[in-house]
Amino acid sequence: MLSNRAMISHESLLWTLLLQIPLVCSDIHVAHAPRLQTVDGREHQHPEVPDRARVIERALVRANLATPIKPVVHADVTIDEVHDPEYRRFIKNVCQEISEGACLTPRGISLDPKALQSKDPAIRVGHYAFGQDAPLMRGTYRAAREACDIALTGLDHVRNGARHVFALCRPPGHHAEYARMGGFCYFNNAVVAAHSFSSQGRVAMLDLDYHHGNGSQNLTYERADILYVSLHADPAFAYPGFSGWQEEVGVGAGEGYNANFPLRAYLAIGEYLSSLEQACEVVVAFDPDLVIVSIGFDTHTEDPIAQLSLDSCDFGRIAACVDAMGLPTLHVLEGGYALDYLGESAMSYVQGLSPGTSSPMGH
User: Fold this and answer.
1) What strand order describes the sheet that includes 329-333?
2) Given pLDDT bands bounded at 50, 70 and 90, which one contains residue 11?
3) Do the Cβ atoms of 349 and 314 come closer than 8 Å?
4) How many angstroms separate the CA atoms of 325 and 104, rounded?
5) How many CB atoms lie under 10 A from the CB of residue 274?
6) Which of 29, 83, 157, 175 is catalytic?
């Protein structure tokens, strides 16, 4: 028999595990480490660096808030059902041509398929890009492909009864469109997971990144089985600028299943939560079987490429609002570039979620 002390220790361990969130993560992404990005023809330090994921994982694990889980490989078709298969294969093949350590930046943007006949890979890449801020490296395809597996593995755990799962995806994905990369994104991790689940039930996507998820909207805009709701900085002044307006509500079968909540610059948590509560009401009214949150920590006041005024502790209040919907939720990492604040922001966010399990889906 166990001694009283051993029983207490065992119970404490069980309680600690119950309080932890499954954290799906991998180190494959480290080979994708672009140093520079081109904006308006000028080169700048690239903010989407490997330390983003490392900092979050380290903080959550050291605080006993998360249990790391390795991703499981899923079939290519799970991506090809969302993205143009030729686009995925193009990224895979062109990355194999890039020298180790080198970066390939699109040289101009062209929808003309003749661009694919160029001997210059930088021109060929331009056919599949809507900007120059998603450079390719030798390890980019493998990292982006692994990010999809991370999201899909997280979905598997939610299917099996986890109440909340954090998919630590890098590179991010919500800017990636059907056959176009941009905004640091190559494959749309959140939409790949949403589509994978859509045959089992209704999916609501709640995008809380600072920037509008043009890719997520683009991929779901004509669908009635996937609701897309986004809180983001007003596209009148924020990237990407060409999407995210309030009047964009979906088309065809998807009309009424797209909702945008543009936010003014430098707003604080009170005003943010007011909009978030409205967004959550839209989600609950849709009556989804699953919620996928695209969580971006770039709404932090110290983020170098954003203009909102949230503090690290505010992410706990955001998570509590999401948690109050009482729905199985997959949390997929998008942006967040203030490395000194990422760990504490993620800890606050996870602490705002209720631990526990739900009934396995499909049982």
Assistant:
1) 66-69, 21-24, 164-167, 329-333, 290-295, 203-207, 226-233, 258-263
2) very low
3) no
4) 43
5) 12
6) 175
Both tokens of 312, joined, read 């690290």
Quote the pTM value: 0.93
Cβ(283)–Cβ(204) below 8 Å:
yes
Distances (CA, A) of 63 to 19, 132, 213, 357: 11, 38, 31, 21
Active site residue 175: yes
pLDDT tens column, 316-358: 999 999 999 999 999 999 999 999 999 999 999 999 998 766 6
Cis before 240 (ω within 30): yes
Task: Measure the CA–CA gap between 260 and 207, rounded to whole angstroms.
Answer: 9
DSSP element (H, E) containing 320: helix 314-323
Greater model confidence, 40 or 52? 52
Report the relative pairing of strands 329-333 and 21-24 from DSSP bridges. unpaired
Q: What is the pLDDT of residue 271?
A: 98
Residue 26, both tokens: 């991998």
pLDDT score of 39: 62
Euclidean distance between CA atoms 166 and 23, whole angstroms: 5
Per-residue pLDDT of 208-267, as tens digits, reads 999 999 999 999 999 999 999 999 999 999 999 999 999 999 999 999 999 999 999 999
- What structural domains and CATH numbers belong to the chain? 21-32+46-74+142-351 (3.40.800.20)
CA distance 71 to 362: 22
Residues 338, 303: contact at Cβ < 8 Å? yes
C-alpha torsion 85→136→176→242, nearest 10: -130
Question: In 3D, which of 50, 37, 333 has the Cα closest to residue 167?
Answer: 333
What is the spatial distance between Cα 233 and Cα 213, in angstroms, rounded to a whole number? 11
Q: 31: burial class by Cβ within 10 Å (0-12, 13-18, 19+)?
A: middle
pLDDT (0 to 100) of residue 6:
46
The band of 109, judged by pLDDT with boundaries at 50, 70 and 90, is confident
Sole residue written with tokens 């954290």: 23
Structure tokens at 226: 């996937």
Largest CA distance in the chain: 75
290, pLDDT greater than 80: yes
- Cβ atoms of 187 and 145 within 8 Å: the answer is yes
